[in-house]
Design goal:
Elements lengths: L3 E3 L3 E5 L4 E5 L4 E2 L17 E2 L4 E2 L22 E3 L4 E4 L5 E3 L18 H7 L16 H5 L45 E2 L4 E6 L3 E8 L4 E6 L12 E2 L9 E3 L4 E4 L4 E4 L9 H9 L14 H5 L8 H4 L13 E2 L5 E2 L2 E8 L9 E6 L4 E4 L4 E4 L6 E5 L27 E3 L2 E2 L3 E2 L5 E2 L5 E2 L10 E8 L3 E9 L4 E10 L2 E8 L6 E9 L2 E9 L2
Antiparallel strand pairs: 1-2, 2-3, 4-26, 5-6, 7-8, 8-9, 9-14, 10-12, 11-12, 12-13, 15-16, 16-17, 17-25, 18-19, 20-21, 21-24, 22-23, 27-28, 29-30, 30-33, 31-32, 31-34, 34-35
């Protein structure tokens, strides 16, 4: 099979049956220690420019440094067979389904008001456990994956929808059309209550929507709105930061293993400029700064703080945040770019990128007098990567979301984040400890999925896909590869729905796993 090299051993080939991007990981930014708050990778493996997908950019090229250029703690789950799912990265155990009443249907009958959802946790005994709790916003956000694409708000069918959660393990639910919901009305409750109010005075709960891929503040009081619920248990330290000021303009979070810039960039830039700035930045004798992905940046939000309550940004006081004047003319704090692209309706859509709001998340709502805090400090939304914000004098969308485009930047380094091979603490390259073939994700899939494997030494590698009759339908890899971690994107767009198997042979190591293509 012929390969073309792209930058750091990134390779691509295609056939009628499959295409894939093979990434050999041969450099790293530190190894993460045994931490209490491991940030799970976003799962974003596609590369984007300002509008669509592109070939993996090399260091020094435009758009290098985006989410897919860096791999973190790979999402990993275990289905315990008792309606519970264990997150092998975070140590959290979850209820599997929104179907709380057990009737086999996920609809409005399974939704609860925010306060009721918290109270009902004590009566949940799923899996035989009695210590379930309503998750915090940081616990729930650990499940989000940016391999998804936002559903059309007016959609009446879920065909082709790619949610922002691993649907192999979790039973996703949508809005109940028969009850007057939109399909997009699939918000999941948390125990995190906003210190301020939104929408002109609503008591507000932060929730995650795995159908539209966002954090937003929602009405907390009955009888305004009901929510789906996933309960959690174990690792009660998850989401609790352990910041340490290093005295050199950097702050280490000993809970996550991430090191942050104490100051932000001080001015707003578009997304491409944010990436460029991060990749050439040198500070405190470190040259491996990067633009954080969505989950890394959200990990440093302090949801007990906000401009209206503490007269500060929603972040620990160790950090310095540039003050801005918001759309309503009030003193406020910025939204900050992440390296994560936000896709709408198709994963090939790359026109927007994720930001986290550390000040009020503003929207233009005439019924509340114009510009107000609509989503709350700590919301996760998205902005166009490029353009003219003056073209949006009344924001965008049904809640008039403020469109700024020129958002702020705070850089990060460290954690279990690789660009290539792992390094030890002294900067020497080390290989994976053993041969590993991971379960593909997502699974089931339509039409693309990622197969990840690790090699502890140079090996001749064969990775093939077979149908249930044992007939080979695709050869993904057939060559000698150096030690490292590899991600292969398999596209089954020309295959029929059904069960398939992928088989890795590397030297004497042979392992086979099942994947499911659903049309």
């Amino acid at each position: 099979m012929n390969f073309t090299f792209f930058a750091t051993r990134r390779k691509k080939n295609s056939s009628l049956l499959a295409f894939f991007i093979l990434v050999a990981l041969n450099g790293v930014i530190w190894a993460q220690t045994d931490t209490t708050y491991k940030v799970v990778d976003t799962g974003q493996i596609l590369y984007y420019n300002n509008s669509t997908t592109i070939t993996a950019p090399s260091s020094g090229q435009s758009f290098y440094g985006q989410d897919a250029n860096y791999s973190g703690n790979t999402p990993s789950y275990t289905d315990n067979g008792d309606s519970t799912i264990t997150d092998n990265v975070t140590g959290l155990m979850w209820t599997k389904s929104y179907d709380l009443n057990g009737d086999g249907v996920k609809n409005t009958d399974d939704k609860m008001y925010a306060d009721d959802a918290k109270t009902a946790a004590s009566s949940c005994n799923t899996g035989g456990y009695t210590d379930w709790r309503l998750p915090t916003i940081k616990e729930l956000y650990s499940l989000i994956l940016f391999s998804g694409a936002e559903i059309n708000p007016t959609a009446t069918s879920t065909a082709g929808v790619i949610p922002f959660i691993n649907t192999t393990y979790f039973d996703i639910g949508y809005g109940d059309l028969s009850a007057g919901d939109r399909l997009i009305d699939a918000q999941v409750a948390t125990s995190t209550i906003y210190g301020s109010t939104t929408m002109g005075g609503d008591r507000t709960m932060f929730g995650v929507n795995f159908v539209d891929g966002r954090i937003k503040g929602y009405p907390a009081d009955a009888p305004i709105k009901k929510y789906y619920v996933l309960y959690v248990r174990d690792n009660t330290e998850y989401g609790i930061n352990q910041f340490e000021d290093n005295g050199d303009g950097t702050i280490t979070d000993n809970a996550t293993g991430l090191m942050w810039m104490k100051d932000d960039y001080g001015t707003g830039v578009n997304w491409e400029s944010a990436l460029s700035y991060a990749e050439v930045f040198e500070y405190a004798d470190y040259t491996d700064w990067r633009l954080p992905n969505a989950k890394e940046l959200q990990s440093i939000v302090d949801y007990t703080r906000s401009p209206a309550i503490t007269n500060s940004a929603a972040i620990d006081t160790m950090f310095n945040c540039t003050q801005i004047t918001n759309e309503a003319g009030a003193a406020d704090y910025p939204c900050y770019w992440t390296s994560t692209t936000f896709s709408s309706q198709s994963t090939s859509d790359g026109k927007a990128a994720v930001y986290i709001s550390f000040g009020r998340a503003m929207g233009y709502m005439p019924q509340f007098g114009g510009w107000v805090d609509v989503h709350g400090a700590g919301a996760q939304r998205s902005d166009p990567k490029t353009g003219d914000p003056s073209q949006y004098p009344y924001g965008h969308g049904p809640q008039g979301d403020a469109i700024r485009i020129y958002n702020y930047v705070r850089l990060v380094r460290g954690g279990n984040v690789t660009t290539d091979l792992h390094q030890d603490q002294f900067g020497s390259a080390i290989a994976p400890d053993d041969f590993v073939l991971n379960q593909n994700y997502p699974n089931p899939f339509n039409p693309s999925t990622t197969i990840t494997f690790e090699l502890p030494s140079e090996s001749f590698v064969s990775l093939k896909v077979y149908n249930v009759l044992g007939k080979e339908v695709a050869t993904l890899v057939s060559e000698k590869l150096v030690a490292g971690r590899y991600d292969v994107i398999f596209n089954g767009s020309q295959l029929t729905s059904g069960v398939y198997f992928y088989r890795l042979q590397a030297g004497s190591f042979i392992e086979t796993r099942k994947l499911v293509l659903l049309r």
